[in-house]
Amino acid sequence: MPQTTKVETWVQKVKELCQPENIVICSGTPEEYDQMWELLIESGAARRLNNTKRPNSYIVRSDPDDVARVESRTFVCSHEEEDAGPNNNWMSPKDMKATLTPLFSGCMRGRTMYVIPFSMGPIGSPIAHIGVQITDSPYVVASMHIMTRMGRAVLDAIGSGDFVPCLHSVGKPLCKGEADASWPCNPNQLYVAHFPEERQIFSFGSGYGGNALLGKKCFALRIASTMAREGGWLAEHMLILKITNPEGIVRYIAGAFPSACGKTNLAMLVPTIPNWQVETVGDDICWMQFGDDGRLYGINPEAGFFGVAPGTSMQSNPNAMLTLRKNCIFTNVAETDEGDVWWEGMTEKPPAHLIDWRGEDWTPDSANTAAHPNARFTVSARQCPTMAEEWEDRSGVPISAILFGGRRATVVPLVNESANWIQGVFFGSIVSSEKTAAAAGNIGKLRRDPMAMLPFCGYNMADYWQHWINLAKNATTKLPSIYYVNWFRKDENGDFLWPGFGENSRVLKWIFDRCEGNAEVIKTPIGNVPSPDGIDFSGLKLSSSQIEHLLKVEIDGWLKEIPSIKAYYKEYHDRLPKELSKELEELKSRLEDAKQSTL
Q: Which H or E run contains 149?
């Protein structure tokens, strides 16, 4: 008699708890994908788009109360509260399970329980890891078809080995004869719970995005970051791009940017400088491990893009728009009278009439937006015209440089290079954006998002910084150079100084040349900045004073920011790495010396 595998044991346990009507072990076949859409269309959640305009694509409308990640209902359930840190909501594993068990009990009555074996990263890669998600949502099954490698091949790869269990339910059992909602959910009982010591994820009440696609932020960042700390690698909220110079030399760059900082646009960049090429390896998540040669190698653990639609256009990101020509899922966008999709920013002029994300008539005179601000597209990465051929290389790609960037109108220059790895970690730890009129709080007030990981780090952020610092102690060869970039510097009139988008390739070229040892720098209190002619500004309508402003190190501005950095660090008490405290004090000393020398 064959031995029962860990997957089979877990599936049986969940079946007894959730009490589904039937069970489907997902195969990952195109036929299965099509079947999910038939179910979603029948329920009223989805519509098939015009096949001549957007072949094999669907539009989905969620419940208005289930439209985004809900950070306030996302928990890290470590045994000790201090291990979760001030960057996470915490509940003890015992209390969380006492809360969730009654909710999950019988939650799949009247529904099908789908078992999704999935791999984050190419199947068989030494950098990849495997999970099994159980869900009662056909939308999740269809989305996981695109976002992960899933199905029978992954189940075979697991065998009797370990995996990350991911349990999800929309939280709406069906009584016999009861009509189902088009988008079942239970937002009043929403929980997204991570158990880092047990490497488990439980999600209840939402069917949307990162709350429900548990391979994404839940596994690939919160759980994987804890796995990476234990294993001596990195799980990061980073893009990976490939850049090739006119001589055919290739470098790979990873970059971490908070939301609204142009991360996806950079990953799919169309360079404006002649004979340089940028290709995409990943747009959102990067797992990096040391290779046999001692260098850091990165993979994109995802198989698709789950991007924000509003603001995406042929002007802002033509490669994303070309990726969306077919085989897509569009969630909470607007629908045109011709059976296509539309969202704010997609075209300069909106259509005269649309069906909005709520399913209601919309015209340009309507008070509300046609698409939800967090409307999403889901599409296979293989469709992106700029995907590098090695994006699925099991060994990963060697990372030469790491970028950190926020949205700063002042203080932070266009680019500066850290003098060493520890200083780079320091700059990553203080990444911030200035609040705008659209954000709660005082305009200009800084919102810290270290390494763009604040919502996604699965443990205490201070311990996370220490893990980054420890990598330098264990590295056998040179680690990637670290850069701090800022596309959003403004002039005294409040206008952006830097044109951004494809022109960012000029900054990438300087970073590339630094990796090659070919670009000159000026040493400053905040590290190295380009010399006045270090970046090619030719063809841009920038005056010499504007260029100077872009690259200027604002001594007074940095000195004024020191107290806010100290206050932020105090939140982490005695767990803050001493190396970061030292970097802060040394930065203050250098800035004061620089100010004194100008007097």
A: strand 149-150
